[in-house]
Each structure stands twice: as structure tokens, then as C-alpha cells.
Design goal:
With 318 residues, the protein is α/β, with parallel strands linked by helices. It is built from 15 helices and ten strands. The radius of gyration is 19 Å and the shape is globular.
Length: 318
């Protein structure tokens, strides 16, 4: 029988902060012991009832950076465990994750163990949460302009220390980040340049900008202590927007990611160029699957968010 990885070159994708919603992963927790064990192990490692926050909220508590990041991380890996149990022959060619999802990707590709991942993601969430208080900022999505156009406007404004390009998500969907005044001035200039809309993001701070420098400095020693392993599964990382095959570059780019742009569109294009023709997103929401459509990926994209979604994966196995 032909296996799925013989039919396709497969990428596993993992979402980032903002994908969270109360109840995420609950159907997996209820139906599969493998998923339940992931949540229970995270609770034990963190010595708190994270599962209760993930499943019951309240939403404002789950949305806090210190909870949302680790909640999404654990939920994505609980779903991955079920996929591995139900489809044991399914092995990805490459993994990648958006922002926080990059750490999920490191665990999914066997470069980092789950226990270290949980502890690091919680520390990352706390550090970024604190950085939001230390230097107030915000983010906004720019719709209708290319990455080059947004780059040029931000550069010409000369708002050093106040405005950055945070995410290259897809054509016509770029995110800026910075101080409240910096993002406001940037938005005005980008609308004058022809942006269709500026959409303020419901975030607590200016992620992937220089305002996160304090968090990056706190996290650097922890990243240096993480025990990264080699893996036969390839990985695409956010900072270069490309495959990273040299092990020493993994911690380097993980450190830089906190303050640097996420080049998601470039990473997806690199995977597609290398022959990936099946993208499987695991986690809450279908954001990455939607971005694939905007990017114009020709291969298939499949989202695993509920137990019912496993049926779609089973269909592809036939």
C-alpha cells in the first residue's frame, strides 16, 4: 500500500499566538489518551492547572501572553501525538511554525524535548508579557501593499526605535509593530501610499520589534542551555524565511526571532520550491491554511483542529 509520505512531500505547520480560543483541543483530550497525557504532563511540569485555563478560559485569562503561548504549544503537540498514533507511518519532510509555533516545530522535528519546550515557552511568554509593561506598544496589519512597499515606507519614515515590520504573512498582508505613536504614524503613511486598510491587532504589545529587546536578553541564556538535537526532519525558521540545515544556527535564529521580522511567506515559498505539496496545520484555527491560499501554494493544505478533521487526513491516506 502506498503511504502518504510516498504520495506527498509533507510539511507540518504550527500556529502562533493569537490562534487561541477557550476549549481548543478539548475534543482530542476527551477522545484520545495520548492527547490527555500531553495536557497532564504540561500541568505537572508547570505545577498549575493550565488545562483548565485552555478548556474553560475565561478568554481574557487565556489571551494573556504567559498563558496563550504555552496553551497553543501544548494543544498543537497534543494533536500531533494523536496524528502520530492514528497514522504511525506519517513522517513529515519538514516542519515550521509561526512565531511561537517555531518552538512547537522544534519539538515536532525531534530537535527539542517536550519538557524543555514547555518550560521555555512559559518563560518566553512571561518575558514577553513583562516586556509589554516595560515598553508599551502595539501592532497593526497592513492590507493591500507588498512587503517591499511597506519596507520602503517604514524606512523612509525614519522612526528608528519606534516602528518595525513584524510579519511578512502573505502577499498584501504585512504586519507592523512598534510604539503607539510609531504604529499610528506608520499607518497614516501606509494609507497615503495606498494600503486598503490598517487593522489594529488585539495584542498586548509590540511583538517582533525592538521593544521586545528586554525579553530577548532574558531568554538568551535559557536558549543557550537548551539541548538541541540533530534530526532527519528538516526545519524552516522565521528569521531567514528558509530551511536551516546547520544545527548551530537554530539557537541563533530562535534568539533573534523575538525582536526580528517573521518571514512566513518566504518560508512557505521555500518549502513549496523544494517540492512540499501537502501542508498539514495542527492547532487552533486555520490561519496558516488561509495564508497558504493567499500565498498561492499549489499543493494541498489541510487543517487539523478537531477530531473530525482526522477524517480528511484518512481520506488522503486511501
Amino acid at each position: 500500500m502506498t503511504t502518504l509520505e510516498q504520495k506527498y512531500r509533507i510539511a507540518f505547520l504550527f500556529p502562533g499566538q493569537g490562534a487561541q480560543s477557550p476549549g481548543m483541543g478539548k475534543t482530542f483530550y476527551d477522545h484520545f489518551s495520548e492527547a490527555k497525557e500531553v495536557y497532564q504532563e504540561a500541568d505537572e511540569i508547570l505545577q498549575e492547572n493550565l488545562s483548565k485555563i485552555i478548556f474553560e478560559g475565561p478568554e481574557d485569562k487565556l489571551t494573556e501572553t504567559k498563558n496563550s503561548q504555552v496553551g497553543i504549544f501544548v494543544t498543537s503537540l497534543a494533536m500531533l501525538k494523536v496524528v502520530q498514533k492514528e497514522f504511525p507511518s506519517l513522517v513529515p519532510y519538514v516542519t515550521s511554525g509561526l512565531s511561537l509555533g517555531e518552538i512547537t516545530s522544534l519539538v515536532a522535528s525531534d530537535r527539542l524535548n517536550f519538557q524543555d519546550g514547555v518550560r521555555f515557552v512559559r518563560e518566553r511568554g512571561l518575558a514577553m508579557h513583562q516586556a509589554c509593561f516595560d515598553r508599551k506598544g502595539t501592532m497593526a496589519a497592513v492590507l493591500g501593499l507588498s512587503g517591499d512597499e511597506v519596507d520602503a515606507v517604514v524606512k523612509n519614515l525614519g522612526l528608528d526605535g519606534e516602528l518595525w515590520v513584524a510579519n511578512y504573512n502573505a502577499p498584501g498582508q504585512i504586519v507592523i509593530s512598534g510604539t503607539l505613536e510609531g504604529v499610528e504614524k506608520g499607518g497614516e503613511a501606509l494609507k497615503a501610499k495606498g494600503a486598503k486598510r490598517m487593522v489594529p491587532l488585539q495584542v498586548f504589545g509590540a511583538f517582533h520589534s525592538g521593544l521586545m529587546d528586554g525579553a530577548a536578553k532574558k531568554l538568551a541564556p535559557t536558549i543557550d542551555r537548551l539541548a538541541f538535537k540533530d534530526s532527519s526532519i528538516r526545519i524552516v525558521m522565521n528569521v531567514p524565511g528558509d530551511f536551516v540545515d546547520q544545527p548551530p544556527l537554530v539557537p541563533k535564529f530562535l534568539k533573534e526571532q523575538v525582536t526580528h521580522s517573521v518571514r512566513w511567506e518566504q518560508g512557505v515559498r521555500a518549502m513549496a520550491k523544494d517540492g512540499v505539496d501537502l501542508f498539514i496545520e495542527m492547532g487552533c484555527g486555520k490561519v496558516l491554511t488561509g495564508l497558504n491560499k493567499k500565498i498561492g501554494v499549489l499543493g494541498k493544505s489541510l487543517s487539523i483542529e478537531t477530531v473530525d478533521d482526522l477524517k480528511n487526513l484518512a481520506e488522503l491516506m486511501k
